[in-house]
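Continuing the batch. This is chain 6 of the set; chains 1 through 5 are on the previous pages. Same settings as before, nothing changed between runs. Recording input and output for traceability.
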Amino acid sequence: MPPRRQLLLLVALAILLRLPFLNLAVQGDDLYYLFGAEHAQIDPLHPTHARYAFLGQQVDMRGHPHPPLDSWILAGLLAMFDGVREIPFHLAYLVLSVIAVIAMWSLARRFARQPALAALLFLFVPAFVVNGTSFESDLPLLAFWMAAFAFFVSAVDRHGRKSLFAAALCLALAALSAYQAVVAVPILGFYLWQRDRKWIAGWAVVAAPLVVIFGWQLAERLSSGALPATILAGYFQTYNLQSLANKLRNAVALTGHMAWLVFPVLALAAFQIPRWGYGLAAAIAALAAVADPSPLCWASIGAGVVLLVWVVNEMRHGAAGFLHVWILVYFAAALVVFFAGSARYLLPLAAPVAILAANRLYEVRISKWILTACIALQAALGVSLAAVNAYQWNSYRDFVRSVEPQIRNRRVWINSEFGLRFYAEQAGGLPLLLGQAVAPGEMVLSSDLAFPVPFATGGGRLAPVQSAEIRSWLPVRLIGLGSRSAFSAAVFGLRPFDLVNAPIDRIRLSAVVERKPTLSDLPMNSPQAENQIVSGVFQLEDGTWRWMAGRAVLLLKVPAVPSRLAVRFYLPPQSPARRVTVSVNGGYVARAAYDREGLYTLETAEPLTLNEEPATVEIRVDRTFSPPGDRRQLGLILRQVGFITSGEPR
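Output for chain 6:
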């Protein structure tokens, strides 16, 4: 078949893969890029100057781990269609998938003995099938990364200036899509060094990602007074993202994802290694089995090690080719840079792995029947994962539409991230902040999966209004309540995907119903505590105590006779709080200063006579802190708050 016809068939197949998902709902981290796009409607040059709630806290998008290109693309679509329109948006992003496939074909024609096979292997990488349907920055990065590599290789091979200019443009766009575009510098630099090391213009283009990212950082510094990289580093510290535990999970998960860039049976047939390599892979797989005995975990990690050992072994024997360097340099950078271990992080590696696998399969003369069956299984896996993914996000959209009249008529707080939050905000809901109080008469829309944050019911109780369980009949899972899949993030598990039949998520809309306080003396482990805490007090710990923020509000039943108010608390060593103030119904009743850690009781000097029911008790501290990896602002540890009769021990 002529090459042009093969390319047309590949493009047609790429489009067919996307067509069933054109009406796919907003998913995953799409909403954060959409926040930037919305801000770009009023500040087109600075979409990342948006501020929004993330995991219960207000954050600055200048600290987002991606530059602004994706938000600019979405901003243009928002302006064009006057809001989010799923079908035209996905049609626009389909163009990026086509660019990636055409670039892959160009690279396969240059490096693969079987270009069509290499392109098919690339097309059916599960992460490409799934994440090619989102509005996140991974698809723009992949499209411009692949185009840049294809143009640069052509430019170096033919000394073509037009191709070199196109490569520079695509590298700039890739750099504006994701910081990891800088990894292209050593990879393309290696190719240029091998082929035409004296070409000055080529070296200038190789440096393009560094120049673009540095230029954008400088422009932001001059226009806003802060470097985005500095704000990002601050969030890394605040959320403890670069902790050793996160880095280890990231490394293990990415190794497992390597096994599924090509169907493992084909990978093991293609990438044959010395005995010591299999021994190393078996040892690492055995260690992984300690953490997770599922074969999906340890077998995938072992297969990923086999692939990496094969690349290293080839280079040890003098086969230091462009594709080998591409794999090793990018994978090493992924171990250092990333922390979540998501499958989509390895999309820029799909091309070299597919090409090398196609070349090796040509050499080992694998049976066409086995080859066809494995490609079909890989395609079926990718489509199944994409179908379950679509079902999950569409279910959020459908649920919000079913409760939209209630959201529009009452104040509704959204205790969720992902697409559920996006559609609920579109209907008029508000994001719930960490430790916030929800007053009686208000409602809460929550998800068990999508990172709910603790909140208080303002002296009321939650009454269910409407709920739904998201459960797919297909047993494959990218993410879910009963899943241990690292497809989206290694925090959920270490398997590249999972095979379970558990619910994906449970979502509910609840109303806060007023409930009068029943206790005048409230231990923090009392069953009634949740109903009498209004705000600023967090969940019960060790069955006895609760952290409070800088300000805590609780409701107490007014005692029958005048009584003293007592607050029993502990000042831990790490807390900087030294002054504690207590007020009742808006009036100060007690205050004290403390010079060291310890267990204390702050009491009113005289019994209080209260005529207003209930009594609103407010406790304040002068300073708070945030422990590493904890987003909360903490003051002291509460043990008990209540009225006591004269002479009663505390």
